[in-house]
Amino acid sequence: MNTFSPGAMIRFGWETFTKRPWFFIGVFLIISILSSGGSFRTNDSADVTSGAVALFVVVAAVLAVIQVLAKMGSIHLVLKAHDSAESATFGDLWAPHPFWKFVGGSILVGIIVIVGFILVIVPGIIWALRYLFVPYLIIERKLAPFAALKESARITYGYKWQLLGLLGLIVLINILGAVLLLVGLLVSIPVSSLAMVHAYRTLSAGAGTQTA
After folding, report:
1. Do 148 and 134 form a contact (C-beta atoms < 8 A)?
2. Which of 86, 101, 122, 165 could be a cystine partner for 6, CB 3.0 to 4.6 Å?
3. pLDDT value at residue 191
């Protein structure tokens, strides 16, 4: 079984972050702005026109697309930064392909996890861990959604507790970041993202002989 330690994943994230801290902070700020997308609301009055509703729908759709592209870009960038922090650039945030595979995979994972939580919580947690790396597999290997589900289940097989421990550490780190007047999030979130991509790469590298 491949060596996998939650602490080692966090340590890698921190060491990579410290190589180019201002770059990763800048990336986090860009992703945060794109992901928030602002808010668009119609007037609270009862006489909302059909034009206003149509505009709301269009803007909401555009913001949703921007948020998906921001997520895709962030994964693409940390994948590159994992191999060489020095070679990653802001241009790596533009990674629009494969857009529909990414959307389809995200929807499938969301449905599976929601159904799991409906089935007394525990299955939802297990399935969330099992399919944790679907987005990474779609971005890096361009896998179709169902193929990404199968591959994520394969590479995470036998590592559920370690992954749960890693997510627990990530939550604690980001809580500490939020406590520090939110400024700490400028560090904790990039470190968490780099730790997660290292987990993906570590399990992918050692999963060659594993079976689902």
Report:
1. yes
2. 165
3. 97
Burial code (b: 16+ CB inside 10 Å, e: under 16) for 25-64 equals bebbebbeebeebeeeeeeeeeeeeeeeeeeeeeeeeebe
- What's the pLDDT score for residue 210? 43
Q: Smallest Cα–Cα separation from 24: which of 201, 180, 195, 200?
A: 195
211/163 Cα distance (integer angstroms): 18
pLDDT of residue 124: 85
Q: Which residues contact 168 (CB under 8 A, 6 or more apart)?
A: 6
The pLDDT, as a whole number, for residue 34 is 86
pTM assigned to the model: 0.87
User: Mean pLDDT by 10-residue block, N- to C-terminus, for the chain (212 residues)?
Assistant: 83 96 95 73 57 82 92 96 95 94 95 85 87 97 96 95 96 92 89 97 76 37
The C-alpha atoms of residue 22 and residue 186 are separated, in whole angstroms, by 10
DSSP-derived secondary structure letter, 38: -
- If residue 43 lies in a helix (H) or strand (E), which one and from where to where? none
CA-CA distance, 184 to 190, in Å (whole number)?
A: 10
DSSP 62-126: HHHHHHHHHHHHHHHHHHHHHH-TTT--GGGG---TTHHHHHHHHHHHHHHHHHHHHTTSHHHHH
How far apart, in whole angstroms, are the C-alpha atoms of residue 65 and residue 50? 23
